From TrEMBL:
<dbReference type="InterPro" id="IPR021812">
    <property type="entry name" value="DUF3391"/>
</dbReference>
<dbReference type="InterPro" id="IPR037522">
    <property type="entry name" value="HD_GYP_dom"/>
</dbReference>
<feature type="compositionally biased region" description="Low complexity">
    <location>
        <begin position="65"/>
        <end position="76"/>
    </location>
</feature>
<feature type="compositionally biased region" description="Pro residues">
    <location>
        <begin position="77"/>
        <end position="95"/>
    </location>
</feature>
<dbReference type="Pfam" id="PF13487">
    <property type="entry name" value="HD_5"/>
</dbReference>
<dbReference type="Pfam" id="PF11871">
    <property type="entry name" value="DUF3391"/>
</dbReference>
<dbReference type="InterPro" id="IPR003607">
    <property type="entry name" value="HD/PDEase_dom"/>
</dbReference>
<feature type="domain" description="HD-GYP">
    <location>
        <begin position="148"/>
        <end position="344"/>
    </location>
</feature>
<protein>
    <submittedName>
        <fullName>HD-GYP domain-containing protein</fullName>
    </submittedName>
</protein>
<dbReference type="InterPro" id="IPR006675">
    <property type="entry name" value="HDIG_dom"/>
</dbReference>
<feature type="region of interest" description="Disordered">
    <location>
        <begin position="65"/>
        <end position="96"/>
    </location>
</feature>
Length: 419
């Protein structure tokens, strides 16, 4: 829906249909565009432009309306103060402070959140399957816990959510995409409200798979044409399910319906292309594919996280928004948590943690195997960014090539007991 708004109501994530000005006053050559960069917003606000048309079907609505809910009758209020006594100012709520912690400090807490969220998503999706409205309040509480964990240490929950069984794939996939959307939103500079909207959209994006036969979803072999058509109907099915709940936001609806669209227009269900796809759906496309290809499925073994990013980079020109994909890589690292790597010293190790504010090529790695002796060595956590550290990553490796099994225990630590 097109809507005319004041310039001070513009925010990142909106789709600008047209700026209300002559072409000479606008800092952009495009008439219509998705507002994805805070610097672009500043450029617009620095001009003489006072109003703009936005398309709420392709991007965010104004805050006052996007977050509105049906209002109950107003409760009785106290008598107003006399005119001579101005009402005391109401202090805005203090911003929530979340302190970053190490992987070891967050893993136990993240493991509990993952297990709790998996059960909650299972219950929520099955309620939807039976025709009941989605409990958005419970979903938002889940997103809050997941987002807080990602803010403390993104690698912990994102890494744990990648470890799935075939029986819980759909539910754990939703938890994983929620966490990935949160990490990506922060990398793109979205504010807290927008970040949690992205997380909620990730949590609900695949709810339509409840309408697809479990035999098809868990089929180990190639799908028939009819089965593939059934699977491709899940975005529309999910959209219809979510529409039954008035409290589901336009963003969650959009991502549910359009997370399989591709930049080149070859996706489904509407074959949208380029900027016809909202920012949030472009984010959802990246997060959905990454988690899908890194997870074990009935018909294939999941790819290594680093290899998955390499494959996605090959597809990115037609499949993904380049800017969003690059931000995604920055959010999880070139060698994401759980990647098996070979160091130049001839030792193998698993990436344990990314280094905030440091090179994506210099994570923390727990080494455990020597290629010189072809044997296991005492596990040791090394920080490749530490001053004076001469070792560095030479390549990512395939565990099967070296006959290694259960390498996840080297980054999971004590949390491995609960998996």
């Amino acid at each position: 829906m097109l809507k005319k708004i004041e310039i001070d109501q513009l925010r990142v994530g909106m789709y600008v249909q047209e700026l209300c000005s002559s072409w000479i006053d606008t800092p952009f050559w495009q008439k219509s565009f998705m507002l994805v960069d805070p610097e672009e917003l500043k450029k617009i606000q620095a001009t003489r432009i006072r109003q703009a048309w936005i398309d709420t079907d392709k991007g965010l609505d104004v805050l006052s309306e996007a977050s509105s809910k049906p209002k109950a009758e107003p409760a009785p209020t106290a008598e107003p103060l006399p005119p001579s006594e101005p009402a005391p100012p109401v202090a805005p709520p203090a911003p929530r402070q979340i302190t970053a912690v190490s992987m070891d400090d967050e893993l136990g807490r993240a493991s509990q959140i993952v297990n709790k969220s998996k059960q909650a998503v299972y219950s929520m999706f099955n309620e939807a399957r039976m025709g009941n409205a989605v409990d958005v309040g419970n979903a938002q509480n889940m997103v809050e816990e997941i987002a807080d964990s990602v803010m403390r240490n993104p690698g912990a929950l994102i890494g744990l959510a990648r470890l799935k069984t075939k029986d819980d794939y759909t539910y754990m996939h939703s938890v994983a995409v929620c966490a990935l959307m949160v990490a990506l939103a922060k990398q793109l500079g979205l504010n807290d409200e927008e970040t949690r909207e992205a997380g909620l959209a990730g949590l609900l994006h695949d709810i339509g798979k409840m309408m697809v036969s479990a035999d098809i979803l868990n089929k180990p072999g190639k799908l028939t044409d009819a089965e593939f058509v059934s699977v491709k109907e899940h975005p529309v099915a999910g959209y219809k399910m979510l529409k039954e709940s008035e409290a589901v936001s336009a963003i969650a609806l959009d991502v549910c319906l359009h997370h399989h669209e591709k930049i080149d227009g070859s996706g489904y269900p509407n074959r949208l292309k380029g900027e016809e796809i909202s920012l949030y759906s472009r984010m959802g496309a990246v997060c959905d594919v990454y988690d899908a290809i890194t997870s074990d499925r009935p018909y294939k073994q999941g790819w290594c996280p680093a290899e998955s990013l390499r494959k996605m980079a090959e597809w990115s020109s037609g499949h993904f928004d380049e800017k969003v994909f690059q931000a995604f890589v920055k959010s999880i690292g070139i060698f994401p948590v759980g990647t098996l790597v070979r160091l130049e010293s001839g030792r193998l190790g698993v990436v344990v943690e990314q280094q905030v504010g440091k090179s994506l090529l210099l994570p923390k790695v727990r080494i455990f195997f020597s290629l010189r002796s072809m044997g296991y060595i005492a596990p040791e956590l090394i920080d490749l960014s530490r001053p004076g550290m001469n070792d560095k990553i030479a390549s990512r490796e395939d565990a099967a090539k070296w006959g290694l099994k259960d390498i996840n225990r080297y980054w999971l630590g004590d949390a491995a007991v609960n998996r």
